[in-house]
Structures are given as C-alpha cells and as structure tokens.
Protein 1
Amino acid sequence: MAVKLALVVRADLGMGRGKIAAQVAHAAVAAVLANAGNRDFAAWLAEGQPKVVLKVASAEQLAEVVRGAVAAGLPVELIRDAGRTQVEPGDSGRVDALTGALSLL
Amino acid sequence: MAVKLALVVRADLGMGRGKIAAQVAHAAVAAVLANAGNRDFAAWLAEGQPKVVLKVASAEQLAEVVRGAVAAGLPVELIRDAGRTQVEPGDSGRVDALTGALSLL
C-alpha cells in the first residue's frame, strides 16, 4: 500500500471515544483539505482512503512525530482542541431535528 | 450554530476506539468530498468544522436516521466497513518509516 493517512492520537489526555473520534475526523478532514491537489491524494482516494489510527503517550512524542514528518517532507497537520470541535447535541437546526434525540457516543 | 456534521455510530458492533475513530474519519472525509461545492460547506468550514459524534443501538436505528436525512433533503453518507478502512501498521513506505513503531490506538 503506497499511500495512507496515519492519524496519531495522544492517549494521555483521558479523551473518551466520542471525543477521540471527533478529533480524528477533524484531522482527516484537515489533511484532505490541505492535500486535495496532490497526486498522492488521488491515489489515496482510489485505494479506499487507507488510514491507521495510532497512539502516542505525550505531547513530546507527538511533537517528535510532527518533526519527523516535516523532516521527511511528508504533509502533516497538527490538531489542537479548540474546545468546540465536538459540539453538544441540541443546537437548533435541521440536523438536530433529525438527531437531537440521540446520545453522544 | 447553523451548520454541523452529525456523525452517527452503531454502538452495537463492539468496535474499539481506534476502529470507531477510523470509521468516523472515513465518514467525515466522505461528507466533505460529497459536499465541497455546497454553500453550507463553506459556512461549516468557516465555523471551525463543528461536529457531533452520536450513537445508535442497531442497524435499524441507523437506517432510520439515514431515511430521515434523505426525507429532509440533508446530505448523508452511509459508511460500511470494507474490512480495510483501518489498515495495520507496518506497511512499507515513507509514513511507516515515521510511525511504524507506534501502537494502534
């Protein structure tokens, strides 16, 4: 497999699975938006968006991965939680009319 | 908040958090690719990609949400696991040179 998306999560933050999923989704979307013009992106899509979700144990270890990616010339996006990546259910709107009764994962 | 992405996960499948994150990321990317030309998409991006990760208890309940979205004219993507959405670490390539030693989340 020539092209894949590695999603690296800090496991030391005590995030629940829903929070992790929201952050990983944010990272995947950021990676797609930043690389949609790349040749590798088309290959990645054609291969079914292969991705792997990995963990690190600290901010330092994540920074090390980021530095390594930059040094290797690999595209990399660093996501920091803005405290609103995963919003609460119950906002007004057409989506909530549909999903407002569902629980957070 | 006018525009958000609701990511609805079946909680009855016994998926681990890494698997859930990979599937939710797949769904978010599919939603972005399918809606990048929509006016709502630009608003969603400008608002910081607000998203919510919700759960349902069965395939039937998920199908109900999908039917409701279609009926409401909301864009919806249904993701089925192809068994390779989350690939194993250790494939050859430049990403693995960087992340091959990390564990799956």
Protein 2
Amino acid sequence: MPGVKLMGNEDIAMLLYPGFTALDLVGPYHFFAGMMGARVHLVTNQTDLRPVESDMGLAIEPTVTLADCPQALTILFAPGGTDGTLAAARDPATIDFIRDRASHTQFVTSVCTGALILGRAGLLQGKRATTHWSVLPLLTQFDAEPVDARVVQDGNLITGAGVSAGLDFGLSIVARLRGQPYAAASMLTAEYHPEPPFEGGTLSSTPKNVSEPMTALFAPFVQEASKLRIVK
Amino acid sequence: MPGVKLMGNEDIAMLLYPGFTALDLVGPYHFFAGMMGARVHLVTNQTDLRPVESDMGLAIEPTVTLADCPQALTILFAPGGTDGTLAAARDPATIDFIRDRASHTQFVTSVCTGALILGRAGLLQGKRATTHWSVLPLLTQFDAEPVDARVVQDGNLITGAGVSAGLDFGLSIVARLRGQPYAAASMLTAEYHPEPPFEGGTLSSTPKNVSEPMTALFAPFVQEASKLRIVK
C-alpha cells in the first residue's frame, strides 16, 4: 500500500508514576504497540521495576527505569492523573528525565494532565497545547496557548485532551508515523467506531447539575496545579 | 440528585489471563473503578499473583486468584484477545470459575472476544450477544444470536463489541447501576467525547484495501475459534 510503512523500529517511552490514570496510557499504548516493529518502553519513575499503582488501584509492570530508558526516541509520552501527577511534576528526577529525553525524541507528547509534567519541564513554551478541561486555562502559566481540542499538534509537540482522548491521540500519531491506511487497520482491529450511550463528555454538553459538582470536585486539584511553574 | 446512587458496594470481578487485550479491560475498568464504593477484583487464572502479560506485552498485576475471588458479584467480566483467549476458553479451571461465579452475579459480561469464554461456559445460550467483528458469526456455535451492535443486553448478559467498545460498554453499565447523572459525571471526568481522526473502525466504513488484508490476518484465529463448543 502506498504511503504505508508496515514495519518500523520506533522506540517509544511511556512514563509510569504512582497515581497515573491507567486509561490515559493504555489507550495510546494499544495503538503504539500495535505498530509492527515498534518497541514500547514503560518507564517507571520509581527506583525499581515493581508494578506502578494507578490512581484507581490497577498496577502496571514497568519495563525499564528512568536511567535505563533508551536515549533516542520516536515518542516521549506522559499520562495524566491528579495528585500523583502533581507529585511527578514536582519530582526533580522525573523532570530531568523528561527534559533530557525530549531533546532526543521526534515527538514530545501527553494525554490529559500529563501536559502539566511537560509544562513544568518547559516543553510547552510558546506552543499551542491541550490537556484535561479542568486545568486547560492553567497552561498559560507554562507560557503555552491553551487550545480546546481533542488532539493538538504544534511542531514536535502533540497533546491530547482528557483520559479517553488518548485513543484519538494514539491513532493520529500512528497515521503520522505509518500512514493513514496503517492507522485505519489499527482502528478496525480495535473496532474504534465509538458510540457513547448518551450525549456528554464536555463541560458544554453535560447538564449543569452534573458539571457544577464535578468542577467543584476538581477544585482542590486545580488549586494545587495552579502553583506549578516552569523549573528553571 | 434523583435516581443517582453516589455510594455503592459492588464487587466486580475482571478476569486476567495471559494474552488478554489490555484496552479491553482498562476501558471498562476506568468506569467501574470510578464508582465510589465499588471494589474491582483483578482475577488471574495463573496460580499466583505475578503480573499477567497482555497480548502486546503490557502486564497488569492481579489482586486475587480464581479461588480467592469473592463468590457473590455485581459484575463478572471477561476481556478478549486472540491466541490467549483461545487458551483461556480451553482452560477447565477458567471455565469452571466463570460458570460458578456467573451463577452468583448480577451481570455476566464481556468485551471483544471475551464472549468466546462466556460462550464456551454455556452462558450465551438462547441469548442475543455481540463480540469482535472477526468472530461475530461464530456466536451461533454457542447457541447465541449474533447482534452487530456496540453493546448488547439480553437479561443479565451484557456484551460489548471489539476492544474500544469497552468504553461505551462500561459507561452503559455505570448508568444502569448508578443512574445516568452518575455516568454523565464519569463521562465528563474521562472527557469521553470521542473524535476519531478519520472515518473507520467497522468493516463497512473501512476501505477494502485495508479491510481485506485485516480479515485475512485474523483468519487463522477465526479458524481456531470456530472449533470451540459449549463445555458440557
């Protein structure tokens, strides 16, 4: 098939830290790992290879530590979360790792509040980016331009909106790396023809009696996230 | 909020077996584990609690063995896969577990080819059900009526289509258990307003130059799956 790269040799690093949201990572993982020949490294910011517990409890086994992750990458990826993401964004070793690998990767990427980690590492400066709706306005504190969209690309930065946006994000990256027919094959394998059981999923499409308490629920996290700044 | 159950005490068992598809499980997990008070048990069919490797490599840590899984459940769930699913469907201990817990659960459920496991356990008999498109016609061999839909409920059986259908499936179950406003809150948290980057995800919406090689790729798996019958 023209424009399609069936076999590749991408090195893809996906960050795992305590309190990450599992679906933020597993959505794009499904499409990244489905690229024949790609090597996906699950990189823990813990000091050993014990499973990393997500925000809801489910734990994923990492394949490599920060120190042992390959230097040259095709994709560097950070998932989101809430309290765990704040801790990762404040962790010097994690930020050093993200900054270092970002200078040796084709695409710097995040889904959901993973953008806060990239932001603190200074990787959103002067760029258009997206993140989970709850913290979208905060991207300005990292000198980024917040964009209310599902997936936003600005140069080598590709960011996805909240949690489930990781599927749209992952597919769009596969299309970029391997061509659209390859991505269409992955889409068919994953039967990705979504049919949410009812309308919703954004602030504007959610009834106020639901969106207002949810916004209130996120307020303490947003308050803490609003204190993050680029690490000099 | 009327019709909403904020706090619950559901016991939910999600089966893990070598070669399961991680996204089949993590999609619904996100919505199940997001129900306040629900306990999600990740049940391994291995003999110990070592992480269970998925079809693409990513390994998830189980919380309990088949023997130690609670008896009375709100949801019993089987994810899909390919070769690993055939092995699980042929494993007597797995089928015994599924059958036993199915008789003590409110909902018997699957996503993707997880329906083959339920089918072999005799749980699809006389019911309408769905599964991954590649094996949908095979449901007749378990005396089920195949339905080409994203999520199908027939009595206490709820089945989802391939992989990504787990998100629609999970949300629809949350709506049933906790009321639609609760599910709308989960949907907003997960920002579930999907926007696939291009059209596709079903056989009919995928160009033939992509769908034909993919159908051929699945043929050996389908051939093996076609030999499965209900265990007497």
